[in-house]
């Protein structure tokens, strides 16, 4: 809820908005807010409906080697586990501490997707993936090294990959051999990036702005990739505002942070094949549209996990039926996800 001061009447002297206002108004002003964007339907003006994701449909591909393979002389460590709200990234919040007792080495993949949309067009995209190895804890391993081979499949989208040469080597044909002392934290044994044109997008977003006189109307539209393994949940949309608004109308309800000059919408679930979602805001600004434009942009934060990866990369035993490791849950999250 807004602080008590925000509910007190405030005199607004902006032309067309003169009068006393009761702070911030959160409501479903569907009619008035929709009028500002008349002509923009759920198909995102013919450019951002869910059908555009059809190109990301997963295809069964033959095992291929890792293109652009190079070796790293040193590697980082896995992001530490963190509670939500502590400033960590969505991906770091998903890397939670293991509670169950391990019986052998485990492997999993984390993926981070960054994108920038300019209206309905995708301007930039980047995808970073990391294959982690979790060994038995040193106390449980009793000084025994972790050593086995594994296979990486589904690498047709990979642009570049790098190995942590101190503990893993390439045998060829997508097969890798790992040998390392036991560690407390997961080891990033392979890092990879995807070709931009083959990068899967979990979410397409579009920001539409209408600046007429001293009235600014903004709408964010979003549509999920219908080919995701599971629907996105707990998605946060953040709209950076040009001013600290004295009068604000939003739909649906949002949280205003005056210090950061931003609006936040929390969406519990986004349907895979449902209609495009809409987030709207309207406020008076000091700059008249004839004098110049005001800058607004939005960011998106999301994270997910499951048995499948967004990249299509798979971890397999070298010999069918004989696995020297178990596969843990894979994670993915947004990096820098912008719309402007």
List the helices and strands and how they pair.
Layout: E1 10-12, E2 19-21, E3 25-26, H1 30-35, E4 69-72, H2 90-94, E5 106-118, E6 121-134, H3 138-141, E7 146-153, E8 158-164, E9 168-172, E10 175-180, E11 187-194, E12 203-212, E13 215-224, E14 232-240, E15 249-251, E16 255-257, E17 262-270, E18 277-284, E19 297-301, E20 303-306, E21 314-317, E22 326-327, E23 330-339
Parallel strand pairs: 3-15, 4-8, 5-22, 5-23
Antiparallel strand pairs: 1-2, 5-6, 6-11, 7-10, 7-21, 8-11, 9-10, 12-13, 13-18, 14-17, 14-19, 15-18, 16-17, 19-23, 20-23
Structure commentary:
This protein is mainly beta and 340 residues long. The protein has two domains: 130 residues, Mu homology domain, subdomain B (Immunoglobulin-like, Sandwich), CATH 2.60.40.1170; 153 residues, Immunoglobulin-like, CATH 2.60.40. It is built from three helices and 23 strands. Strands 4, 5, 6, 8, 11, 14, 16, 17, 19, 20, 22 and 23 form a twelve-stranded mixed beta sheet that branches. A five-stranded mixed beta sheet has the order 3-15-18-13-12. β12 and β13 form a beta hairpin. The radius of gyration is 24 Å and the shape is elongated. The N terminus is likely disordered.
Which properties best describe this structure?
MHD, twelve-stranded mixed beta sheet, Muniscin_C, Immunoglobulin-like, elongated, MHD domain-containing protein, five-stranded mixed beta sheet, 2 domains
